[in-house]
Amino acid sequence: MIGWTRSASPAFPPGPRGFPILGVLPQLRSNPIRTFLRAADRYGEFVHLKAGPYHGFLASDPADIKHVLQDNARNYHKSPLYDRLRDSLGNGLLTSEDSFWLRQRRLAQPAFHRQRLQAMADVMVGCTSQVLERWDRSTSPGDPIDVGAEMMALTQSIIVRTMFSTDLGAAAGVLNRTWPIINRRIGETFWSTKLETSLPLPANRRFWRALGELETVVYQIIADRRQTRRDEPDLLSMFLAARDDETGAGMTDRQLRDEVVTMLLAGHETTSLALSWTYYLLSQHPGAAQSVEEEVDREIGSARPTFAHIERLTFTRRVLEESLRLYPPAWGFSRRALGDDEIGGYRIPKGSLVFLIPFVVHRRPKLWPDPDRFDPGRFAPEHESTRPRFAYIPFGGGPRGCIGNQFAMLEAQLIVATIAQRYRIELVPDQDIRPEPLITLRPAPGIRAILRKR
Fold first, then answer.
1. Helix H segments across 139-201?
2. Residues 311-351: pLDDT tens digits?
3. Does the predicted TM-score (pTM) go above 0.85?
4. What is the SS3 assignment for 170?
């Protein structure tokens, strides 16, 4: 196939030649995960991928990943591919750069300190208990549930209550309706040009309408908090109270909007997907599911799970970590070189893209023997100590690593433990579930499961 002949250029590492002008862009737009996996399998740990006007480099070696994310992080910004995210999330923590990003990160960091996480744990368990009570009332034995929808609703309620000290009420319906439209359109256009995303096409118009509805809700939350002047122990109050060290100016409504949307959306979807994939894997490995239940019975019993239980739920955490290895919700990201650099002995020209794809890195046989096998034991201390730090990057790494990684792991452990006290989730047989790489890695067409009372 012409799109996958080897490049003969000595200036770059080996890689597929691709098509004239477009390079491998058609393959990336069609199936990015398969394209990246195939490139790594055929050409090794550092691959040249011409993608339209860009020289791209796929880095799968932990040392090269560390160079980009940590050692020379100042030379790398979020790539132009993040323009699709900026169209919806704005210039928040996920998409901003340099001094503005650092300022916002410092403002947000205290919300994720250990003491605050302890206080959030009870809210996480309380929201999960409400879901279990609803299942007790409304779910008949044998009736299937949509695992993804259930986890999405649960993590949404948690992020709203812990980050904004409130319940969205009727506005939650707007979020439920608009976010799937926004998420899908960004995923569909991730490899598109600015022209394609600015034309008044029906899909673009649906996206713009959904984004407008979501913004209306967010601006109303901000206006209500400004008007009532409530000082809550949450991120929104911290941002409202923040002042620039030099000018003393507070954040504008637009800046607040960008941070609220980032936390509201990015803060719940990834965890819900991690949980969905975890239940997908546990259903296929009933021995692991039983081990989770036995650990919860032994360490918590019938008591209410708390922050203090977390350190004792070691197997439960390893299950979640292995799920994040196999199906990382943040399946791939990229960086743009601000200046010339060198990686693996090859020159990286200014403006090049470096692709860092956890879905690929987590499946390199050199790092993960028998990589497609589900094995929580990989995360036992004796194995973790021998593995390079950047062999496992479900939350990124370096200074731009996910600010909410500890929040997410705490939330996932408490949810799994609370559910395991009363239910086992088993997949409906004969489903063809595959990973769909949009902005995040979604199970397509969804996961249908049966609730079994313990």
1. 147-164, 171-188, 194-198
2. 999 999 999 999 999 999 999 999 999 999 999 889 999 99
3. yes
4. coil
β-pairing, 353-356 vs 448-453, is: unpaired
Residue 448: give its domain's CATH number. 1.10.630.10
Domain that holds residue 187: 87-326+399-453
Q: Please give the structure tokens belonging to residue 62.
A: 């932990």
Looking at the DSSP assignment, which residues form a beta bridge with residue 151? none
Backbone conformation region of residue 132, classed left if phi is above 0, alpha if psi is from -120 to 50, else beta: alpha
Contact status, residue 414 vs residue 316, Cβ threshold 8 Å: no
The pLDDT tens digits of the residues spanning 91-133 come to 888 888 888 888 888 877 877 888 888 888 999 999 999 999 9
Question: Is cis: bond before 328, omega within 30 of 0?
Answer: no
HEC profile for 58-93? EECCHHHHHHHHHHCHHHEEECHHHHHHHHHHCCCC
Q: How many domains does the chain have?
A: 1
Contact assessment for residue 131 and residue 154, using Cβ atoms and an 8 Å cutoff: yes
Burial of 219 (0-12, 13-18, 19+ CB in 10 A): middle
2 secondary structure, DSSP code: G
